[in-house]
Inverse folding.
């Protein structure tokens, strides 16, 4: 068993070394929003679906599956950018603003594919459990996930952010419990 453990440690060291150039890039998370290119969003905190509902604000991105089956209503959602590049998403065509945070400074987060893509809106909890079978998800600090993602995406060439979709098995998302304060809105 000790030889197996030492071999695994060597493999981890080789993977870290191979991924070092990618890990040296700036890894950030972005929240994209805002339909008006001339007016930045009027809010200064990314709030969870739950917190928005409790405050009487509606969310256009939430459906029955979020509330009934996924339990993701106390999380906020982000794209991962590597050196400013985000993966292609059709919905980004309708946004004009983004907020950004350094991934390695996020104390708690998790990554998975977009779980709603596996769900249909009226699905009950049993249907959700079946739909979630085989979904990959990883939880940790931003720094831990940054290393895991760099190792998963190394060899991706000039588009490591898009390689994360392949590594995770679907449209990649990073989730943070509750929300994050917005220091500044950037125009895309």
């Amino acid at each position: 068993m000790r030889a197996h453990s030492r071999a695994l440690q060597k493999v981890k060291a080789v993977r870290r070394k191979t991924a070092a150039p990618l890990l040296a890039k700036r890894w950030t998370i972005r929240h994209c929003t805002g339909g008006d290119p001339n007016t930045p969003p009027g809010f200064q905190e990314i709030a969870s679906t739950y917190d928005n509902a409790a405050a009487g604000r509606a969310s256009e991105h939430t459906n029955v599956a979020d509330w009934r089956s996924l339990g993701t209503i106390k999380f906020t959602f982000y794209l991962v950018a590597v050196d400013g590049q985000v993966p292609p998403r059709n919905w980004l065509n309708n946004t004009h603003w983004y907020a950004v945070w350094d991934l390695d400074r996020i104390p708690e987060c998790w990554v998975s594919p977009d779980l709603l893509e596996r769900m249909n809106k009226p699905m009950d909890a049993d249907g959700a459990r079946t739909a979630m079978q085989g979904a990959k998800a990883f939880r940790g600090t931003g720094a831990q996930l940054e290393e895991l993602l760099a190792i998963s995406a190394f060899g991706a060439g000039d588009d490591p952010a898009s390689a994360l979709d392949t590594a995770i098995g679907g449209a990649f998302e990073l989730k943070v419990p509750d929300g994050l304060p917005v220091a500044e809105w950037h125009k895309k």
Q: What stands out?
A: The first strand starts at residue 27 and ends at 33. The mean pLDDT is 81.
